[in-house]
Amino acid sequence: MLTKIFEAYEYLGVVSTLNRSEGIVVIRGTADTYTEIIEILHNLPFVVQVWEEE
User: Fold this and answer.
1) Secondary structure of residue 43 in the 3-state scheme
2) Which site from 7, 15, 29, 41 is most exposed, i.e. has the minimal number of CB atoms within 10 Å?
3) Whole-number Å distance between alpha carbons of 51 and 54
């Protein structure tokens, strides 16, 4: 579902599964799309935890 949401937003980021059984994914984006990605994640119809890598 998350992949389809990001595809609908014209590929702001690429969604990859890290651990399917735990539901852990990574979204690879750019500095230009970071703010939009975070906004989308905070407004999803399900709970997500965001870990940011610096």
Assistant:
1) coil
2) 7
3) 10
Q: Residue 47: inside a domain, yes or no? A: no
- Comparing C-alpha atoms, which of 18, 22, 23 is closest to residue 53? 18
The secondary structure of residue 35, as a DSSP letter, is H
The range of the structural domain enclosing residue 13 comes to 2-42
Residue 48 lies in a domain: no
Q: Is there a domain that residue 51 lies in? A: no
Q: Give the span between the Cα atoms of 41 and 10, in whole angstroms.
A: 15
The answer to whether the beta carbons of residues 41 and 48 sit under 8 Å apart is yes
Reference 28, options 17, 42, 41, 13; nearest CA is 13
Residues 10-20 pLDDT 10s: 879 999 999 99
- pLDDT of 54 above 80: no
